[in-house]
Records
---
Amino acid sequence: MRPAIDDDIASLVNIERDVSPFPWNEKQFAESLQKHRSYVLCKGNRVVGFLIFNQVVDEAELLNIAVKSSFQGEGLGAYLLDYFLAEISASTVSAFLEVRVSNFPAIALYEGRGFRHMGERKAYYHGYSGREDAWIMRCDLPLR
């Protein structure tokens, strides 16, 4: 793991296009690298995953997380999520995220790390046949 840099944007876009039906574009990644905490996961010199989050006072929001499809099934998504939780644990009370209601593997991963469904955003995501709802999930972290 290392902080993401501008030279990583092409890799981030490629991973996002590989795994997301409606991916972020270069501009969105460039803005996130400037405004948020962004990390890449490398195998050798190859970027295979990323993590982008924001923290305001004692709350954090997971904005985007992905692993290249050819590296999925190796526990790298769990590693990224654990890294996120470790990074925020000393200074954060709660972590939030939104996830497509149809993304069952991600929901299972998040629930396995203590995230719980706390609400929905109707028609939040673009979908192939209209819009798709998002679950809002929250994880309360122990105070240290």
---
Amino acid sequence: METHAATRSMEFRHLRYFIALAEELHFGRAAERLGLTQPPLSVAIQQLEASVGARLFDRDSKGVRLTPAGQAFRASAQGLLDRAEDACALAREVQAGEVGRLRLGFVGSTLFNGLSAWLQAFQTDHPKVEVVVVELNSQDQIDALLGEELDLGLVHTDRLPPALASQPLYTEPFLACLPASHPLAARDEIPLAALSDQPFILFSRKGSPDYHARIVEICRQHGFYPRLQHEGRHWLSVVSLVSQGLGVSIVPAAFQRAGIQGAVFRPLAEDIEGSAVFAAWRADSEGVLRRKLLAAREAR
């Protein structure tokens, strides 16, 4: 029991002192290398030998030599020091945001607004950071952030629970989305009133209540409520349903770059507030990697 208690009292400085003396085999030179005087080094070596329970050095008029026990101890001591230094270096890199794992949620529109280029630029500058991305609608991202399953979300709303914080990233126009065969598709721009009697395909109320309500409110402000025909949980699903002639929609401009055949996009004749995307995260999270990722986007 005494030996175990003594071993627990061993300090890493003792190992550093031991390695220096094992390499120099001279107390004076080892002490100078360590920035010590010789007496504290001698005391530390004695303390280490007491902790180990074995004599590590022979000292006589001929000099200093490692004992067989000291030779056996040297390799393990060096390994411990190396691992300790690696652990310290890793901790410093994690604190600095150079190493780690970031879980990022995103809504589909961000795919067509530079998300890939943003992430590639960040990974080039931070090769030791693993970024895990998952597409989720805004409400699912909010739930995942609250459940600590995401570190950062890219969402279509800033109406968030008190536990979450946010910042605006960008705003883009809304466009009318029509089947290519639709009579209105020939127009250069679409008055909202022209859509009043059309079957609408909207983003799911459950998937993003705020966004669903936003489209309904845009229509209401221009004299009608949309005649809801279908709902989709992802914007690409909405555009795909439009492309198949099942209705019309109002969507963020990014989706005109999605390349979905059979759907056309036209500016709205009215000047309406655009579609905003926000970064969201837990307000109580430290977020070094989050801040670095957002800074990388601002630098582009």
---
Amino acid sequence: MSDAPETREWLIDGFNVLHASLFSDGDRSEWWTAPRRERLVGLARHFSDPAARIWIVFDGPRPSAPDDDADAQERVQVVFADSADDWIVKRVRSSEEPGRLAVVTGDRQVADRARHRGARVAAPRDFIARCATPDGPA
């Protein structure tokens, strides 16, 4: 049995994950669209740890029509920030238990900053692999 704290909060660098794992071979102009964001949010709802809280952070202003009608009780939350990287690092810095956080990004600078503050870092493909849909793995 491990003495490491269990990860309960996942901070997802939204566009980075879309680029690194879901649409790396597709048309880059499509990354920023609502359907792409919604696909990532939909996958995250099937994350293998049902107790985990998931924050998906996208760069930019919130679209005029929300992607989703989720309320604060839903375990998957979508955030729009001027800088997803800065939002994620600030969240890690302000956490009383950064060891219970996992940052999902392929950005080395963000990963290094999160690790330095005590958070775990997961690769985008590893996170997506843990998001099983009713029809099978993502």
---
Amino acid sequence: MKKMKTLGAREIISFPLLGIDEIEARVDTGAKSSSLHAEKIEEIEKKGVSFVAFVVPAAGNRRFETDEFTVRRIKSSNGQIERRYAVQITAMLYGEKYKTDFTLASRPTMKFPVLLGRRILKNNFVVDVSRFNLSHNYKK
């Protein structure tokens, strides 16, 4: 059996392909999907191919585009069903890369710009809610 690492209730993680070295994330075992704060989220078409375009404030307001996305129906924290785009992003925890889907959501009033949900946690991590920044402290 694979030895799982422990995450705390919140962690500082990295998204190397987005140019984000450190960003605070809330570990949310109640959420199925992980989520990233993004703005100006739109579906666009180029030469007959659909792309999702979005701006990530934590990446210096850089705009990203990808044709590798899905559309999901997500129940938000207030219980409402929302239509959200999901893109695969590589996150760094404990110095290791974990590629998983992140839904794109406008979260400007939320304390944490990133939520880590059960899909990335499953088979990789256990959560100790009494602790925090375990992955980041390991990096030091």
